[in-house]
Please model this.
Amino acid sequence: MNQTVRAVRAAKIFCLNGKPPLDDGVIVYDNKSRRILSVDTWDKLRPTCKVTNLGSAWITPGLFNCHTHLELCGGQALAPAPDFCTWARQLQSTPKVFSLPAIQNALQSLRDNGTAFVADFCGGKAQTVYELLQSSGLHFSLFLEYLGWRQPKPRPLWQKKTAGVSVAAHSLYGVSPQAATTLHAWTREAGTPFALHLGESAAEEIFFENGSGELAKMLGGKLIPKNAKAVGCSSLVLADSLGLLGKRSLLIHCAQLKKKELGLIKKSQAMPCLCPRSNAFTGTKTSPARMLLEHNIPFCLGTDSLASNTDLALWNEVLFLIRDLRPSLSQIFDWVIRNPARFFGLENELGSLTIGKKMIFSVLPEELQQLV
Ligand SMILES: [Zn+2]
Model:
């Protein structure tokens, strides 16, 4: 018997191979390469290798968490805030603690939650975070996040064309329009995804529309130049006018999205990444999820960081988001598996439990079983 072959048996397996789920299914895989060797019902395969029996559990392919900031794991827990600027002031006044054990715990919790892939956004500690991600067993995209209105300079991981590394503009108020277009151009040239936070708060939209409000008060003369003028449009329209929307653009939050702007997303094929629990934590109660669903616009989900969320478990994000929605299980699989697998070009590795793919699975929460 091949000692490296293992199997997992479960009451239901959603392979996401275009066929109905398997009842009493089993996945046989090579434990060394973590590649799937065969998948079928227990009766058909009855493998003789070591089998982990998950009993009544329903399992899915591993999940894609498309927005984290592992760097922020080590700080003191913040309190939910009534609005974004109150939360941001709290974050600013809390000492930053870069903690390796905290990041390792976070990575462990991601694995425990059945995460296959994480898109992390990182500032000054990118080399260390990159090394931790490399050894984590997770697939990842590490975005070197730029914050500040000066022209960006390539950072070492980017200069070295490191696999899995790309660049992101923090937001359109966090960098200058020129800096945003420069970063976007770098990614176009390198063929990597581009990302930015967009429409996270009402304050952000007021700043772009009028050049005033709490965000201007908080950041004017500091992050945002004193002479920065209103652009007279929303963050999404501004991103479009700068040429930042495209099928490789990840738009994080989109919590302020308006119905009349949906066409911009649809036409550009940019991918919104919704973070509903983080938005609620920072005072935004609205969500564009229903609008996006009604207009068949694909999106994905992220937990954001532990500075604005209680955990990095993507299923908890789903359970929170669907309180007011009634999606099908297939739509949920689009958000947390299929759409991001396509966006990040990982469909050959992840995204389904089929022969040759990586053996990374997640256990579907019992609350979601009723959606079948
Ligand atoms: Zn973020």
The two ends are 38 Å apart (CA to CA). The CA atoms of residues 66 and 234 lie 23 Å apart. Residues 63-343 form a domain with the TIM Barrel fold (CATH 3.20.20.140). The chain has a mean pLDDT of 96.
